[in-house]
User: What shape does this take?
Amino acid sequence: MEGRIEKYLIDEKGVESEIVRQKLREKVMKYDDIAAEFDEWLDERSYREEGIKVAGYGASDIYKMAPMLDGIGVFNFLVDLRDNLEEAEKIIESGFVVR
Assistant: This one.
């Protein structure tokens, strides 16, 4: 899976920095369930309505609220919800305006 994520980050997102790619890859792979759903997203490029939920939010919910996020952004935000719910909820409440 790491190779697929690396290819996505280089070819589609244009992330030139190896350090940034590594951080993005490690974050999305932190939890097996989130990583597995992201892997499916890489194939299908659609967010599952019945996918995993973190604090009541799924990838499709995040994308509907923040369509400016790309695939890895949506799934990495699920990691943020799991790791720091209070801060992530503030971001949602702000309309995804990060200060």
